[in-house]
């Protein structure tokens, strides 16, 4: 009888925990989706502004700087 009560209570607690996690996960997923889209739009605007400020040409993908070989000889 004691094992049956423990089993029933464990199943009930597990069910409540699963429902609570779903209750928390669904609003968080919706909020993340909305926030992610907003951040993506802000980043796109910032990249466009930076490209415009730099005045990139069609061949402007060169990174200037020094070259140093790091492989062992």
From TrEMBL:
Regions of compositional bias (Polar residues) in chain numbering: 53-62
Residue ranges of the region described as Disordered: 50-73
The organism's place on the tree of life at top rank: Bacteria
Record protein name field: Hydroxylamine reductase
Organism per entry: Vibrio maritimus
């Amino acid at each position: 009888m004691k094992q049956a009560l423990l089993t029933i209570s464990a199943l009930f607690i597990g069910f409540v925990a699963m429902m609570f996690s779903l209750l928390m996960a669904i609003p968080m997923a919706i909020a993340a989706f909305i926030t992610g889209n907003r951040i993506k739009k802000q980043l796109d605007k910032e990249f466009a502004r930076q490209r415009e400020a730099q005045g990139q040409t069609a061949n402007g993908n060169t990174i200037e700087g020094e070259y140093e070989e790091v492989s062992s000889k």
